[in-house]
Design goal:
heterodimer; A: 516 residues; Peroxisomal Thiolase, Chain A, domain 1; 13 strands; B: mainly alpha; two-stranded parallel sheet; 5 helices; 52% helix; 8% strand
Chain lengths: 516, 104
């Protein structure tokens, strides 16, 4: 059996302070309920500059310029200890919000994004210098709109503004005058998700010298819904992103599972490749405007920078086994069953422990676990704790209960088998997959042999079930041995011989019982 | 404490009477457990939710405080792992402090 491999991975970030102020749900709700609150009055002084976000260590880890373990060597708080500010990284880049407005325009097929005639050429020049986009794509930035017309659309509430501080640079129009699913707000959210997903795909292809035309299938895993009033989640973000990213031979699908979506999609992609249905499958997602500034009230209360100003995206290519790239062990898949129960203990048992036991593996046999990788500097001040550390402690506690380690070694387990969280709190984004780029490097360098990626989803948020969810898979160093068709035929022949031997033995037992 | 939970607690207390409602918390952080306890006793300290300026004065405990009342095998199966993971002493101490500060 030839397992599928992970050929490459990309992670991108876009710093979006203005989108946070205008589209983050925490801020939207506060503006509606308490427009004169101290929180709204003071948040402005805690908003970061683009430069500060680039020099922020967890962001450098996310785009691949630093390893997760490097965070152990950066003094805390990380926001007070800037690191070398590189906008380009091994896995992707950190884009500025204004440049990103241009990418949103290039991703818009229905003339819903308007940029002022003043800013459009400036953005075009910036994006052109990245050498990522075709002339035809860049040409979409040639036609700017009159800023007075844009202001009029915003004033009429038929469009939402694209700002740089107080300055209006453009807008996103509503796509229908009465359809709530095509309102300017929803179109805005979806275009941000699309453009950030496209940016991740572009980096996946360009940085790894992969021809996008080889991609057969795309699975998109954000938490947004694309459709009109008759089909709120009709789709298809995957194909929409693939179109802009140049995947001319691909189709695709949107797959949803809250934060567990990416891990589910990886398992699906692995299955599609291993079955031979498709040779190359991209799993990807863009980020989310709603979650920007989600915990900003707590950050402001603690007088610290509002760190949830980053829209993120990722893309991973799953391909046929090349004998080199790390494999996905499709025979070791953990799943939280409907009957598993939602206590943390039951969840870890189902997702982490059960699949290992079924494969005669111990918890300590897995070198590295990648659960939700939220940056603790964002979550701890908000009272949500250090999420990855809590997960490592839970996995370690199960190892204690199973007698694999001593209780006194629990903290050592978390250090040995875990990494510090470094991902922005964008729901599906931190859920296991941001580690993949780093893991590919560590596996290929021989630093680790086995990694478990764990995706967990809070299904109850949608009020259709109070169940929890999760799925896990293992990425492993490639043995380099490929099973050929001849091997498969020989294996079939051996199985047939075995069947005949067993049948013969059974016949003898039956004869003996019958006294023959 | 999120808005929806505040609304549900308020509704439940109004329906059954505050003397007939006990809130049991399962949160993993001492600070957030304390804030939740304060919310259901004295009202929402963040002035954001339905319990703003509503002092229900409910009895409130963290699950770890009720260990002796729970069937041993159930506790072992459902909670023992988290007991190893979380700072139980800090959570219990915070709960006791908040109840004392709020006059419970």
């Amino acid at each position: 059996m030839n397992f599928p491999v992970i050929k490459a991975a990309a992670n991108i970030l876009v710093q979006c302070p203005n989108m946070m102020m205008e589209h983050g749900t925490t801020l939207i709700q506060e503006k509606a309920k308490n427009p004169d609150s101290e929180y709204l009055k003071s948040i402005g002084q805690f908003v970061r500059s683009y430069e500060e976000s680039v020099a922020y260590a967890p962001n450098q880890v996310f785009i691949g310029n630093m390893k997760p373990s490097d965070l152990n060597n950066v003094a805390g708080p990380w926001y007070s200890h800037p690191v070398e500010p590189k906008t380009d990284g091994r896995f992707g880049e950190i884009m500025s919000e204004v440049d990103f407005y241009g990418l949103m325009k290039m991703c818009d097929r229905f003339e819903l994004v308007e940029l002022s005639s003043e800013i459009a050429p400036v953005i075009k020049k910036a994006l052109q210098s990245k050498e990522m986009f075709s002339e035809a794509q860049l040409a979409m930035l040639d036609k700017g709109a009159d800023i007075a017309e844009i202001q009029a659309l915003v004033d009429k509430h038929t469009a939402l503004g694209l700002y740089d501080g107080d300055k209006l640079l453009g807008c996103v129009r509503e796509a229908h005058e009465s359809d709530p699913n095509l309102s300017a707000h929803v179109v805005f959210e979806n275009l941000v998700t699309k453009a950030s997903g496209v940016l991740a795909m572009k980096h996946l292809f360009i940085k790894n010298k992969i021809d996008p035309a080889i991609v057969d299938y795309i699975i998109e895993t954000s938490e947004e819904a694309v459709g009109d009033m008759n089909q709120r989640g009709g789709g298809n973000m995957a194909k929409a992103c693939g179109e802009v990213a140049g995947c001319i031979n691909a189709t695709g699908i949107d797959l949803r599972g809250f934060c567990a979506g990416p891990a589910h999609a990886m398992v699906n992609a692995a299955a599609l490749v291993q079955s031979g249905i498709f040779k190359n499958v991209v799993v990807m997602a863009g980020g989310c405007t709603a979650k920007l500034g989600m915990n900003s009230r707590d950050h402001v209360n603690k007088q610290m920078p509002v760190l949830e100003d980053m829209v993120a995206g990722y893309a991973v290519l799953v391909s046929e086994n090349d004998g080199v790239s790390p494999v996905i062990r499709t025979d070791i898949i953990g799943r939280h069953k409907i009957s598993s129960g939602s206590a943390p203990q039951a969840v870890i048992q189902a997702i982490v422990v059960d699949p290992l036991i079924a494969s005669n593996l111990k918890i300590t046999d897995v070198d590295l676990y990648s659960p939700e990788l939220q940056n603790p500097e964002i979550t701890v001040p908000a009272g949500a704790g250090d999420v990855p550390l809590a997960n490592y402690k839970m996995i370690g506690a199960m190892a204690v209960k199973r007698g694999e380690i001593e209780k006194k070694d629990l903290m050592d387990f978390t250090k040995k088998h875990g990494v510090s969280g470094f991902a922005p709190t964008q729901g599906h984004i931190p859920s296991g997959v941001p580690i993949i780029g780093h893991a590919l490097l560590a596996l290929q360098a021989g630093a680790i042999e086995k990694l478990m990626v764990i995706g967990k989803g809070s299904l109850f948020l949608g009020r259709m079930t109070d169940l929890f969810d999760g799925i896990s898979f293992i990425i492993e160093k490639n043995s380099g041995k490929l099973e050929s068709d001849d091997d498969a035929a020989a294996s079939d022949e051996f199985k047939q011989e075995l069947r005949e031997l067993i049948a013969d033995a059974m016949q003898k037992v039956a004869d003996s019982l019958a006294g023959r | 404490m999120d808005m929806a939970n505040q609304a549900r607690i308020k509704e439940t207390a109004e329906k059954y009477g505050t003397e007939n409602v006990v809130v049991i918390l399962g949160g993993g952080e001492a600070e957030s457990a304390g804030l939740t306890a304060e919310t259901v006793i004295s009202g929402d300290p963040t002035y954001a939710g339905p319990l703003t300026n509503v002092a229900l004065g409910l009895d409130v405990f963290h699950l770890f405080e009720l260990k002796d009342l729970i069937d041993e095998s159930v506790y072992e199966e459902q909670v023992s792992m988290m007991e190893m993971v979380l700072d139980v002493d800090a959570i219990i101490s915070e709960m006791e402090n908040v109840r004392k500060d709020c006059g419970k």
